[in-house]
Structure formats: C-alpha cells, structure tokens
Amino acid sequence: MGGKLEENSRRMLPEYKGRMILEERETACRVKPVLEEQKLREIQDALARSLRSHVRVTVVLFEPEADRICSGFVTSIHAHSRELKLQWAGDSEWIRVDDIMEVRLS
Predict the structure, then answer these.
(1) Is 13 helix (H, G, I), strand (E, B) or coil?
(2) Is 55 helix (H, G, I), strand (E, B) or coil?
(3) Residues 42 and 53 sit within 8 Å (Cβ to Cβ)
(4) CB within 8 A of 48, min separation 6: which ones?
(5) How far apart, in whole angstroms, are the C-alpha atoms of residue 99 and residue 102?
(6) How far apart are CA 84 and CA 102, in angstroms?
(7) Minimal CA–CA distance to 65: which of 35, 102, 27?
C-alpha cells in the first residue's frame, strides 16, 4: 500500500500542471541582449551631447520584467562606476550605463 501512495503523490492533476507552467513563465526573467559596438557608440555620443549641450534625452532601460523609459537631462557621468545622473522637473535618478538599451535625443 505504501508503494501505491508514493506513486499517487507523484501524479499531478492536469489543471495544476498547467497552472505551474503559467507561473513559471510569469516569473521567468528576460535576458539582456548584447549591443553591437556601433549601438554602444551611438548611446555614448548621445549621452555626452546631452551632458555638454543640455539636450533632453529619452533613455530606454533594460529591466528583467519589461523595458522602462526615462526622459530628462544628463547632469553627471561617472565613468568609474559606469553611472549617469538623469534629471527632470526637480527630480533625478542615477542610472547604470550597462542597463541602457537605447538613447534618443529630444
């Protein structure tokens, strides 16, 4: 009888299996794509231009769940920590350069 209980405990209802698969998909993290050298240069140039000329930029940031978009002015770049400060309407945020997927000048 013990063998049959163990066997039954390993079985899973189809409804539960389906729910587990959906939950796994929802919690799965995306993988950041590797950017080409040309794209990296374009990003660096746009950030430097925003810093020098006070041009507004829109930055697309990679995040595990979904991309996030921020817009503002680059006010500081720290090369050693690979971060930049994006400022808008009295608020600001430090952003990791490695999280940037795209930069558009406004």
Answers:
(1) coil
(2) coil
(3) no
(4) 77
(5) 9
(6) 14
(7) 27
Q: How confident is the model at residue 9 (pLDDT cuts 50, 70, 90)?
A: very low
d(CA 49, CA 52): 5
Helix or strand holding residue 92 (H, E): strand 91-96
What's the pTM?
Answer: 0.71
Alpha-carbon dihedral sign for residues 70, 76, 79, 83? negative
In angstroms, rounded to a whole number, what is the distance separating the alpha carbons of residues 74 and 54?
A: 7
Query: Model confidence over 81-101: pLDDT tens digits?
Result: 999 999 999 899 999 999 999
Residues forming a β-bridge with 100: 61
User: Is the confidence at residue 75, as pLDDT, over 50?
Assistant: yes
pLDDT tens string 21-52: 555 555 568 899 999 999 999 999 999 999 99
Residues 6+ away with beta carbon under 8 Å from 62: 30, 32, 33, 99, 100, 101
- Amino acid at residue number 75: T
